[in-house]
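This entry is passed on directly below:
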Amino acid sequence: MTLLDLTLPTPAENLALDEALLDAAEAGERREVLRFWESPTPFVVVGYANKIASEVNVTECEARGIPIFRRCSGGGTVVQGPGCLNYAVILRITETAPTRNISSANEFIMERVRNAISSITHHPSPITLSVCGHTDLALGSLKFSGNAQRRRKHFLLFHGTLLLNFDLPLISELLNMPSLQPDYRASRAHEQFITNLDLPADQVKCALAAEWQATESSSPPPEIPLMLVQKYNSAEWNKKF
């Protein structure tokens, strides 16, 4: 697996690169990839089918000049920015591999990520690090990671966020209560439901790279098709629901 630690200048470009990596793998131009990126500025990103008016405090985002984007995968709405590490894996789909369907891929990938984080966390008992819902990671009952999946015929994109040292109050200020929530959330407000890992990004990236046996490549990252970047910058895409 190739390791790609690359943050592009804008949220739209970074979201587009995840999809471009999936497209390149599907076209036979790339192998499996583990990618990291971190946004230096805050923004909101909704899941593919999310309705912005339901999930986002649009008035507050507009007042602060915080942009709202839509990603190509499912899942819920998140706030990103400094202190939030993004990762993505591009994996091959085969009939006999754990990636063969959505649920088995979720279980396989989430357990790999949980193993990596567990290897560097030292929280006192009885706090446990576990997979909750279908694609959340939590310390005890507090969520620190949300994840989503997009599938093609031969490859899948699985990407997520890891709250390391994020401005947690910002989430409550920019997001409404989600329209869908896992049972373990128990209708808790954002500030009662989320937490930071309080770990340095470099340490987390090293642990994930080791878990996936990902190594850096000398080849350049794929060029993002202009049409893909334009899509993520367009109101037609971002405000479609």
Q: What stands out?
A: The chain has one domain: 2-238.
